[in-house]
Amino acid sequence: MQAKKSFSNPTTVKLAITAEDADLSHIKTEVLTRLSKRGVKLPGFRSGKAPLNLVEKQIDRSLLQSEFLEAAINELYSEAISKEKVRPIAQPEVSIKKFVPFPTLEFEATVEAVGEIKLPDYKKIKLAKQPVKITADDVKAVLDDLKVRAADKKDVDRAAKDGDQVIIDFKGQDAKTKEPIAGADGAAYPLVLGSNTFIPGFEPEVVGMKAGETKIFDITFPKDYGVKALQSRAVKFEVTVQKVQAVVEPKMDDSFAPKVGPFKTLQELKDDIKRQLTSEREQQNEAAYQNELLQKIAEKATVEVPKTLVDEEIERQEQRERQNLAYQGKTWNEHLKEEGQTEESHRETNRPMAELNVKAGLVLSEIAEAEKISVTPDELTLRLQLLKGQYPDKAMQAELDKPENRRDIMSRMLTEKTIARLTEYATAK
């Protein structure tokens, strides 16, 4: 077999494949053997045992040629992409140029594929890890939250003041257009005044209100607010107070610790909070570090990224975004309106990050190959055993044994090992 590779563009490969009798004869034999087992019956021979030259005479010529072409193209194409180191991301478009049954076959296969990848000198790319520091203020913030959660809340018949909890209904509309604003409303919402958990300026407006009172006031959102469409926007809020509750917080001493967990003393509680905060911060730092390191390497690499892969990554990002919005009770159209985006502009806004993510994944795969990193069967078996130990449900354990899930787990393990290798290079002195 001969295969000649050319490019229509950096991510579209054309393979011109030529095969002759030496490449094709075994394929014809395999096809005839398979067809003979489908019920071709010849006098004096058991099913599937007749000589293939006699079987060929009994089989419809067009069926034989069709089955032969499909088998030959699949086998030769697979061999060609392996030989020419093509990484296709879709099914090829095949055009038969010459077919002489059965010793000659020429065809072209055009396919979208990953383009050339040029790795930087990733062994010299350095990135220091930042140490995790948990301060006394960090621990105090958790304790303060626990105090509020454990506090007694009693309905009072007076004006609300800082430190009280109010149960409020609220809704917001654009101060100019009077149009309702998605996500700027709530019902029976508990708010501790002075906690600064709402938009700056909102809580002071509620101070002094009594149960049953309604108040209308304007708030201008900060210019750096998380939702772009609300940045520096004037919003008119209508707030009704259902209840005013005095918050009686418990004393912060050893008697408080058993109320919130299996602790005998306040110091035990503080130590546990610090351990948990340290563990959470370390996980966050590690994930951020790995992401930054990969992006740093990817930015220095040269990769021809197929548009299809980027579009698929954008689709995955949007799907995650839609799920998060659903949890918040927002629709996709409401979100687009808040962001001042159309479907198309939203996708294009996400494209640079999606392209970098795809590029990082391709670079990581290329580095794994360059470093000869692999996952052994024993390593995969051990990981599967550990995962099964976490899921006592038999159905879930059976899911882990499915080929597609085993491949996914192996892929994640390969990623972990490759990132570990890169971290060694990045932190070595």
Structure, described:
- The protein has helices at 21-36, 52-58, 61-83, 136-150, 202-206, 257-260, 266-300, 307-328, 332-339, 343-370, 377-390, 394-400, 403-427, and strands spanning 2-9, 12-19, 93-100, 104-112, 117-118, 152-155, 165-174, 180-192, 214-220, 234-248, 302-303.
- The protein has 429 residues and is an alpha+beta fold.
- Among the domains are: 2-113, Trigger factor ribosome-binding domain (Alpha-Beta Plaits); 152-248, Chitinase A, domain 3 (Roll); 371-429, no CATH class.
- A hairpin with a 3-residue loop joins strand 3 (93-100) and strand 4 (104-112).
- The longest helix has 35 residues, at 266-300.
- The radius of gyration is 33 Å and the shape is elongated.
- The protein starts with a strand and ends with a helix.
Key traits:
single chain; 429 residues; alpha+beta; Alpha-Beta Plaits; Chitinase A, domain 3; five-stranded antiparallel sheet; four-stranded antiparallel sheet; elongated
